[in-house]
Amino acid sequence: MNFADFYKESIDNPQAFWAEEAKLIDWHTPFAQVLDYSNAPFAKWFIGGQTNLCYNAVDRWVATQGDAAALIAISTETNSEKVYSFRELQTEINRMAAIMLSLGVGKGDRVLIYMPMIAEAAIAMLACARIGAIHSVVFGGFASHSLAMRIDDAQPKLIVSADAGSRGGKAVPYKPLLDAAIDLAGAKPAHVLLIDRGLVPMTSVAGRDVDYATLRAQHLDAQVPVTWLESNESSYILYTSGTTGKPKGVQRDVGGYAVALASSMKHIYCGNAGEAYFSTSDIGWVVGHSYIVYGPLIAGMATIMYEGLPISPDAGIWWSIVEKYKVTRMFSAPTAVRVLKKQPPEFMKKYDLSSLKALYLAGEPLDETTSTWISTELGVPIIDNYWQTETGWPILSIVKGVEDKPTRLGSPGLPVYGYNVRILNESTGQDCGPNEKGVVVIEGPLPPGCMQTVYGDDKRFVSTYWTKIDGRQTYSTFDWGIRDADGYYFILGRTDDVINVAGHRLGTREIEESISSHANVSEVAVVGVEDQIKGQVAVAFVVLKHAEVAATQEGRKAQEKEIMGVVDSQLGAVARPARVVFVNALPKTRSGKLLRRSIQAVCEGRDPGDLTTIEDPISLQRIKEALVI
Ligand code: ATP
Ligand code: MG
């Protein structure tokens, strides 16, 4: 089939198009209507249809391929490897679901999952889906402050966690951070379910904390029936990194999400039941939700969960996994590939990678050098795909399963079916011509699988993302882009201020707020600066209240260390700036807005651009000078 026709049908005739795609999943009760957009920009998909994500991911495969591998949990941190067949996975999910029910969790209740990359994390997510509880996974690298904010917003009845994660062979305790977060939070969970990996000792809060192994032993034969949910009920909340300080809880539905995943697994990722899928992301991110846990399982594939570094025990670890499990489709991020690129190439050559058909990369711009290098080394196509936590699945990609169109270096490809993507001129709001830079937007309705709303805040959903243009609701991605004459898109960066450190998304505002809490900090600006390995690193420019403490080299070092410590304890080490530079003033516009883009340009040795609105041009010069001290 020709992709242009397939795409056109999805935009011109979404009802018929998505009714066809909806056949890829099992429905307990068929839907009465495909799309209700009467309350735009809120789109409802598959109204009246009843289904369940856990049923589609696990139960429906038990009958036809119960003994096939479903979840492969590999940890090079604890040297463990366990394969769960679909039947075994179903059994474990039933046990977990029974534990949750016994702790009073029911349909619509929130369960916060703060876990390392271990099988129980996926099992907990699927157990929530089974009983209609709404999970909210919080990335294990976040420290107490970030966690507390998410606890307060989601108000979970239950938190599922573990004693520790592990990184580079060193245990990273979770429990003390979790305890501190619960102390900080206004909302208190009734229970905390703890998976004791035996990595570090834990203290237990009587009446609140319960041990997973003990409860599991009590529910070994549990059979928990699937709770059928109307397509538009909610499956999960996942927080974006948040530029405003208060993260947005992206809320997702059930039926639309299941259909979008089944459809994208078929047309974009081209996975077949019985094959193995390996995504190197983390369950704390949207890729982990869509393409570690739900997507591959809904497609009947075995999914690999990997805890460990990409270069430990050596840089061949991922490729040895590909060989062993005959992985056909792999998903990673450009930053991970840049790490591997620094390693000797023989590690890749040591393994038989003939099973691998394609490598998908997403999350940040894929530069041409990285793309060309990995494609040559692996001898498979590299498929760049562009999307957001909000959309849950790709907005731009090459839809290989429909038509194997050529990729173009530096471009994630064409708009994916279902997404009416446009590029608008920022000042005029008019469509941009070929190669003209503008804001990437999507005309509503968003296709199935995209966010329903901001959790608990419909107003924020509308005011943050939507603008009415020529009477039509338009969703902003907040990314700059251009489209070339052949319709290929190129993403040029964000219109807001979020940085991406080694694949972790961090709001510069969040880091700034944290640094501001240090007693001697008067003003701060954090910008992302290009870094060969990590993609970007955070650099903080700080104006001190008592500048004299930073008069000497030792003084500066000590003050920098203290400030980094504040960020470590509030946000976690991922958010720690690579450098703290002390200056006397920050460049601002006359209206008092920080000129982050200009600071960033100076840091990267670029021209700072139009400075007509700058209040004090000397401040930018001083930044330049401070950088070389
Ligand atoms: P927040 O919404 O809180 O600011 P965030 O945008 O960092 O957080 P994500 O939803 O994970 O969180 O990231 C989506 C963004 O990542 C996109 O809007 C885009 O800027 C960038 N991105 C993702 N994939 C690609 C890609 N293939 N090429 C270029 N940029 C990409
Ligand atoms: Mg975003």
Notes on the structure:
- The structure is a single chain.
- Helix content is 32%, strand content 26%.
- It is α/β, with parallel strands linked by helices and 629 residues long.
- The strands form nine sheets. Strands 12-11-8-6-7-14-15-25 form an eight-stranded mixed sheet, sandwiched between helices. It has a seven-stranded mixed sheet with strand order 5-4-17-16-18-19-20, with helices on both faces.
- A hairpin with a 2-residue loop joins β29 (498-501) and β30 (504-507).
- The longest helix is centred in the last third of the chain and has 19 residues, at 553-571.
- It starts with a helix and ends with a helix.
- The mean pLDDT is 92.
